[in-house]
Amino acid sequence: MNKDTESNWKLGMFVIIGLLLSILTIYFIGSSKICLVYNAFNT
């Protein structure tokens, strides 16, 4: 029982970290594209 909860906890942490990394990556890519479009329209 203890081994199962430990492995589930590690799996949950891995999933949460993966989701956070993907969200941050999408956010940074999106914000950089918005900045490029904004600069292109301003020039």
How are the SSEs ordered, and which strands pair?
Layout: H1 2-42
What is the structure about, briefly put?
The chain is an all-alpha fold and 43 residues long.
Question: Any overview of this molecule?
Answer:
With 43 residues, the chain is mainly α. It has one helix spanning 2-42. The termini are far apart. The model has no long low-confidence stretch (mean pLDDT 85).
Note the run of SSEs as H and E: H
Return the structural class: mainly alpha
**C-alpha Rg (nearest Å):** 19 Å
Helix content range: over 70%
Total E-strand runs: 0
Our estimate of the beta-strand percent is under 5%
Largest sheet: none
**What is the CA-CA span between the terminal residues?**
63 Å
In DSSP terms (H or I, runs of 4 or more residues), the helix count works out at: 1
Specify the overall morphology.
rod-shaped
Q: Low-confidence parts, pLDDT < 50 over ≥5 residues?
A: none
Mean pLDDT: 85
What attributes characterize this protein structure?
single chain, mainly alpha, 43 residues, 0% strand
